[in-house]
Amino acid sequence: MNSSLLRQMRSTFFFALLGVVFMFAAPQVLQLFTIINLTTAIALAVLALSLALIWGYGGILCFGQVAFFGLGAYVYTISAINFGGSTWAVLMAVLVTSAFAAALGYFIFYGRVSDVYLGVITLTVTLIFFSLIRRTSGPEYKIGNALLGGFNGVSSPPINLPWDSGSFLFPEHVFYVAMAVLILCYVFVGWLVNTKFGRVCVAIRENELRAELLGYDTRLYKLGIFTIGAGIAALGGVLFCNGVGRITPDVFSLYNAALTIIWVIVGGRGTLIGPIGATFALFYLTSALGGQSLLNNNLVLGIILIIFVLLVPKGVAPTVVDWIASRRKKTPRRARRRRGARAEGME
Amino acid sequence: MTRQRGDVVVETRGLCMHFGGVRAVDEVDFTLFDRELRCLIGPNGAGKSTFFKCLTGQLTPTAGDVMIRGQAMTGAEPFEIASLGVGIKTQVPNVFDGLSAEENIWISARRWHDDRRARTLTAETIERLRLGDIRRTQLGRLAHGQRQWVELGMVVAAEPWLVLLDEPAAGMTHEETYRTAELIEEINKTAALIVVEHDMQFIRMISRQVTLFHEGGILMEDTMDAISADKRAREVYLGHRA
Question: What is the ipTM score, two decimals?
Answer without folding.
Answer: 0.90
